[in-house]
Specification:
The complex is a heterodimer of chains A (about 160) and B (about 525). Chain A has one helix at about 20-40, and strands at about 55-60, 70-75, 80, 85-90, 100-105, 105-110, 115-120, 125, 135-140, 145-155, 160. Chain A is α+β, with helices and mostly antiparallel strands and about 160 residues long. In chain A, the strands form 2 sheets. In chain A, strands 1, 2, 3, 4, 9, 10 and 11 form a 7-stranded antiparallel sheet that branches. A 4-stranded antiparallel sheet of chain A has the order 5-6-7-8, with no helix packed on it. In chain A, strand 3 (about 80) and strand 4 form a beta hairpin. Chain B has 2 domains: about 45-355, Up-down Bundle (Cytochrome Bc1 Complex, Chain C), CATH 1.20.810.10; about 365-515, no CATH class. Classes of the chains: A alpha+beta (about 160), B mainly alpha (about 525). The interface between A and B is large, with 29 and 44 residues.
Chain lengths: ~160, ~525
């Protein structure tokens, strides 16, 4: 029983014969398999676990922070601010390239490329692309305040105490 | 007929001739070589030497042509491998121990201080030699014709060398290392600046992926140290060796080092050959020669050696080999002096809470750091990417075949280079003076969008002005080579000026100071 030659691709002008189709399919699947293998292998160097301390940490109870002052927690590079409404946390990591800002008379300055920030964290000069990040302040069940380094919040958000 | 006695005699004979038999099994040719054939064999039958051709053109041996820069770069690399392995005997790539092992090497280990110094200065010297080598190859037009691809291989070597330097920089785990790599990793992550400005980071964050791949986390720590160690001691050196092999192979296949069309005449004139004889030997090599040549001398192929006779060439052994040995000895001698008199710096132990102020990259990255102080993405990724891409394209966009092997392609090219030198120096100094005195966009419009700053900052202005100058040169001279000379010279000047700015005139907070004596103490 004979069968008509299949028309691969449906184009009358440029019919590919079976041999060329199989060849292209073989090479294609080899390349595809290679690409998948490569992508799979590349999962190894991409870190899935960060051996860093947990992003949430305790900072003490509200009585440790007088109203209308701010304090630096040096090990975590965070400034804790308290005003009449409550607590806020400001990251001390410069948004340009990750150096730690230092305090100046009316704000903060980054020693690496001179980005200047106000006390509210807004950029006034220098190459920083945006203001300093504000971080979420919460309270743990035992009454201590916590800061989450991975949760950014708006500047106006205050944790009332 | 073998009796016990003659058997022992044969054995004793063999024992007596042991040294000769052993030596002959090792050598496959006459030693010392006395004829041209034997000298050729000394090179091409030797595993380590046979990358050389058996004959080289006398012009290639002129130090004033190549300034031996390629060889110097290679020998410095070998020196770095040797001193590097020695340092690996004591170095421990763990954040708890790295710093102390480096201190041990410097103060306790026998010859440790010397080896560490040699490693550090050879690294700096290699980058310098490499930059000068690239400039030499460019200005002598040695990227043209069959040599286009070798220029691309050279650019690959350039990238690998810079990465080797960058990865090695973290290993001492001192303040300088820690903060330089923190900045470097954030530069790798700086595409996030662009995706943030476009509001697409949550969907597509190549910057974040690149940073995680590089340092294995969000901050520089043990994972980063191990990854950089891995890159520095095995991955990058292996890649470098392979690329060096291809680079040398291509030099052979492209007909040896480039030389001007009249190289034969120049060499003969210098040797005092009478003008009449020079004129007689001009023109195509006689393909029906009256004397015979060995196979290793006549090669029919696509290379520039076609139809040329070997008459102005000289046997590689011994002259060429001695020349290389001389360059090697000179390089090592200079490194030995530097290592003896100057100590490699070591600051305090890395402290993630206290950034260095100012935190300065090594000198060859300070130009980049100056650019980065305007915009992280443009200065760290965008502009270097454009520059590298532009450099890669040079042999493919400038295909004029004339004046290969001639510095600046002649007098007119020299004039263009001088004009570009003048123009770009004035421009760079004015632009930098302007930014120091008046600041930039964010100083005048604090709420301006970051997207505008990414595309309109001193770095992008420099690239734009250089491109315009080059196009202007192209229009008034009609020559792609001259436009290339103009552009390359502009970038060389730009690089030098930015580096000088970063080295001498930037102090704490990256502010402008006329002199380090004015820096405020912190």
């Amino acid at each position: 029983m004979s069968r008509k030659t299949e028309n691969q691709g449906g184009n009358q002008e440029s019919k590919m014969n079976r041999r060329d189709f199989l060849h292209k399919a073989a090479v294609g699947s080899l390349l595809g398999a290679g690409a998948m293998a490569f992508l799979g292998t590349m999962q190894l160097p991409l870190p899935k676990v960060f051996n860093e301390p947990p992003s949430i940490f305790k900072i003490g109870s509200p009585v440790d922070f007088p109203i209308d002052t701010y304090q630096l927690i040096a090990e975590k590079n965070v400034y804790i601010l308290r005003n009449r409404e409550g607590m806020r946390a400001l990251s001390a990591i410069c948004t340009h390239l990750g150096c730690i800002v230092t305090e100046t008379a009316n704000g903060f300055q980054c020693p690496c490329h001179g980005s200047k920030f106000t006390l509210d964290g807004n950029v006034v000069s220098g190459p920083a692309p945006r203001g300093l990040d504000w971080l979420e302040v919460e309270m743990a069940p035992d009454g201590n305040l916590t800061v989450d380094l991975d949760k950014k919040v708006a500047m106006e958000k205050v944790f009332s105490v | 007929m073998s009796t016990n006695e003659s058997g022992i005699k044969v054995f004793l004979d063999n024992l007596k001739n042991l040294h000769r038999t052993a030596r002959d099994s090792f050598r496959r040719f006459q030693w010392p070589p006395k004829s041209a054939r034997e000298r050729s064999q000394a090179v091409f039958q030797n595993f380590f030497l046979h990358i050389h051709s058996t004959r080289i053109h006398k012009y290639s041996l002129r130090p004033s042509f190549t300034l031996c820069l390629g060889l110097i770069t290679f020998f410095l690399f070998l020196l770095l491998c040797v001193t590097g392995v020695l340092l690996m005997v004591y170095y421990n790539p763990s954040t708890d121990h790295a710093y102390n092992t480096v201190k041990d090497i410097s103060y306790v280990v026998g010859a440790g201080r010397y080896m560490r110094n040699m490693h550090r200065w050879a690294a700096h010297a290699m980058v310098l030699a490499l930059l000068l080598h690239m400039a030499r190859v460019f200005y002598t037009g040695s990227y043209k014709g069959t040599r286009k691809f070798n220029w691309a291989i050279g650019m690959g070597l350039f990238g690998v060398t810079l990465m080797l330097s960058f990865s090695g920089y973290l290993l001492p785990w001192d303040q300088l290392a820690y903060w330089a790599i923190t900045i470097g990793a954030n530069i790798a992550g700086s595409p996030t600046e662009l995706t943030d400005a476009l509001g697409m980071t949550h969907m597509f964050d190549p910057g974040g992926t690149m940073k995680h791949l590089l340092i294995g986390g969000n901050t520089v720590g043990q994972e980063a140290l191990i990854r950089f160690y891995l890159l520095h001691v095995i991955i990058l050196p292996a890649v470098c060796f392979v690329l060096i092999g291809v680079h040398f192979w291509r030099i052979r296949k492209d007909g040896g080092l480039s030389r001007p069309d009249n190289a034969d005449e120049i060499v003969m004139r210098e040797e005092g050959v009478p003008e009449a004889e020079i004129a007689a030997q001009k023109g195509n090599f006689n393909l029906n020669p009256t004397k015979t040549y060995g196979l290793m001398e006549l090669v029919k192929s696509k290379t520039p050696l076609l139809n040329k006779g070997p008459d102005q060439t000289i046997l590689t052994y011994p002259t060429g080999i001695w020349a290389e040995v001389a360059v090697f000895m000179l390089t090592v001698a200079v490194m030995m002096l530097l290592a003896y008199f100057f100590d490699a710096p070591l600051k305090e132990l890395a402290n993630p809470a206290i950034p260095e102020n100012p935190a300065k990259a090594p000198w060859y990255f300070l130009g980049l750091q100056e650019l980065v102080s305007y915009s992280a993405f443009m200065g760290g990724v965008g502009i270097p990417g454009i520059v590298v891409f532009g450099l890669l394209l040079i042999p493919y966009l400038d295909r004029e075949e004339s004046f290969v092997g001639v510095w600046f392609s002649g007098k007119e090219g020299k004039k263009i280079a001088l004009q570009s030198l003048l123009f770009s120096s004035l421009f760079m100094v004015s632009l930098l003076a302007f930014t120091v005195k008046f600041g930039w966009l964010r100083n005048w419009f604090p709420d301006i969008s970051q997207l505008i700053i990414i595309f309109v900052n001193p770095g992008t202005i420099i690239v734009l002005v250089y491109a315009l100058w080059s196009i202007y040169t192209l229009q008034r001279t009609g020559s792609t080579r001259k436009a290339a000379i103009a552009l390359f010279t502009c970038f060389v000047v730009g690089f030098i000026v930015l580096t000088i700015m970063g080295v001498y005139f930037r102090g704490p907070n990256w502010e402008f100071y006329w002199s380090p004596s004015q820096w405020l103490l912190h």
